[in-house]
Amino acid sequence: MRRIAPLGLRTRLIAAFLLVAAISAATSAALTYREARTAILKQSQDTAVSSMRDLVGRLSLPLPPRPDELKSACADLARSSQPHSWMVYAEYAGNTVSSAESPNSTVITDELRAEARTRPNGAVQRVRKGKEVYLTFAMPATFKHNDRTQSSGLVFYGVMPLATEQTTVQAMVVAARDGALPALGIAVIPALLAARSVLKPVRRLRHAALSLGRGKLDTRIEVKGSDELADLARTFNETASALEGSVEELRQAEARARRFAADVSHELRTPLAGMLAVTEVLDEEAVHLDSDTAAALRLITAETGKLAALVEDLMEISRFDARAAELHADEVDVAEFVRKTLERRHWQDRVATELPAGLRARLDPRRFDVVLANLVGNALRHGGADVHVSAAEEQRPDGARLVVRVADSGPGIDPEVLPHIFDRFYKADAARTRSAGSGLGLAITLENVRLHGGAVRAANRDGGGALFTVEMPLEAAV
């Protein structure tokens, strides 16, 4: 089932504004309609009842009235009716006459008759018959005896159609409806203005957040007003200030750490050079010493060499951190270069190669040598004797690339270790044999490849073992 995309904030604001306007218009129209309808009907009702009361009060009929006299009275009342024509009915002692052809009316209810008997001032009722609405009202004829008003038993009923009033009310409904649609159309303009006034600071906040995310920590928002959006802008500015201060502190701490590592490495380099020279001389004389002393001397020589290698790695990493590392590119034959790298370290008999002839590239020979030496040495230490190195030219969307792969036949890399394999000082002891290195070799490899504009990846082979893949831009010789 396809999910419907959520509406944007602008659309929701405009829709909410129009909904409120529509509800307000509908509510106002309904209240106006109700009040106007009540007023119109009440005015007609009050006028009719008052007129009937006056007319009945002026009648002079003998009791008991004769049917012809009663019918003539009904006709007189009907002729004098207002605000509209009535039909008048009279009931006395079970006899019924009217000003119409039929003496009985279907809209005069028993409820109205019962109410008329108990209310000498008259009773009123509105009755719907089909689509027509009628106003029915009863007015008892009374007389005074001993200063008391008494009912004569004669009741006159008026039946007045409310067609005119219904037409007026319907016209009001149509006018309210026709006026509401343009009003909603006009409401779009303030809705757009309101949405703009709300969304403008939101857009400023979005741009500021994007700028902050790009590293511009001095980004701030101009605060206007004192509403919730202004409070949000102030909060953003305070957060950005705190973040800028924290990042600056971290940068200073990192810079101090880098300077410390570089200074320590530099200071250790000179005494280590002297120590290496002495240990080399002593190592040559180890054959003339007893076995225990010779073993201790060779241990000192080996550990001094490791310490010297660690110092060199630290100095190299410090240059990368200080962005002082430079690339001195030269054109090289890839196959010949890889073979020489292996021969210098006496690895040619332990590593199988697949190197195409004539593949040339422009790269920094020293740094590329470090990349190869670190990857192959890592494979030999951790992956066993069966190590394979291959090089090839492959086409990518961004141009030709030099792809070098170093594969081993070891136990592979633990999946939990893979994300950290190029981290500094990280050693995958749980996945591979304990390393005697500094833990900086793969980190230096990554930095050297990046300096060439390339990338290096680590993965596990389907048949077992680890696979490191280096991709770097390839520029053919001119």
TrEMBL record:
Coiled coil: none annotated. SMART domains: HAMP (SM00304), HATPase_c (SM00387), HisKA (SM00388). It is found in: Cell membrane. Residues 263-476 form the Histidine kinase domain. It catalyses: ATP + protein L-histidine = ADP + protein N-phospho-L-histidine. Keywords: ATP-binding, Kinase, Membrane, Nucleotide-binding, Phosphoprotein, Signal, Transferase, Transmembrane, Transmembrane helix, Two-component regulatory system. CDD domains: HAMP, HATPase, HisKA. Its EC number is 2.7.13.3. Residues 196-248 form the HAMP domain. Pfam families: HAMP, HATPase_c, HisKA. One of its GO terms (molecular function) is ATP binding. Transmembrane segments: none annotated. It is an enzyme of class 2 (transferase). Its main location: membrane. Residues 1-29 form the signal peptide. This is histidine kinase.
